[in-house]
Model the fold of this input.
Amino acid sequence: KKIEKKEIQEVFDSILAEFKTCLSKGSTVELRGFGTFEPRLRKGRENARNPKTGEAISVEPHYVAAFRPGMELKKALMEIPVEKK
Done:
């Protein structure tokens, strides 16, 4: 049976929505063999700069999504040949 592109998109969108829900609740999402997504707290800063305007701003502490690659992904990436210049 051929799977329609629209069906694949719906499944993929629902998986991403579940990731977003889990991460926004502070949970970790692990994909065995691929890696782990987790929320990490970034410290706030008083003397930050807006890169577009150069204006001095303060940044409150906040969470960001972080990714740690799994061992299988790391091994696969190590097998990519590196061009020497």
